Amino acid sequence: MSLALRNLQRAVPLRRALLRQRLQAVRGALGVQAFDLGVVCVDNRKIQQMNRVYREQDTPTDVLSFPFHENLKAGEIPQPNFPDDYNLGDIFLGVEFILQQCKEDEDYYDILTVTATHGLCHLLGFTHSTEAEWQKMYQKEKQVLQELNKHMGTRLQPLSRGLF
């Protein structure tokens, strides 16, 4: 189905075609191409405001995920009963924050891809509140990114590595 990619910020130049291509590859690796997905790129001010409202954290962050299907088990693909339910949800990427966190030797679009993969995993029920949950999420991110690495010639690593 569709991938809606919106850029609602002006702090960071964004090559949407490249990001869209990579997001489509991530969706393919996760096997969720049949689902709609919204990805919204925002600046520090907006992501901080959202983080304050939804997570009670008054600080910018890299990604916030809002699943359409709640209470999925980690890695579970939704089984919609109606066509309108073929939706994964929305991911908000704090692109300004992500750029500020990039190390000198890191490619910005690689980090965006890794961060979006992390956000998509959250839409599929993965969390990292405990070490056991983190292990599942880490393994899924690693699997997806290894597949992307084969096709794109990159060396992407999971966002959640070293969390526990």
From TrEMBL:
The keyword Hydrolase applies. Its cofactor is Zn(2+). Keywords: Endonuclease, Hydrolase, Metal-binding, Nuclease, Zinc. PANTHER family: ENDORIBONUCLEASE YBEY, CHLOROPLASTIC. Belongs to the endoribonuclease YbeY family. This is Endoribonuclease YbeY isoform X1. The lineage of its organism: Eukaryota, Metazoa, Chordata, Craniata, Vertebrata.
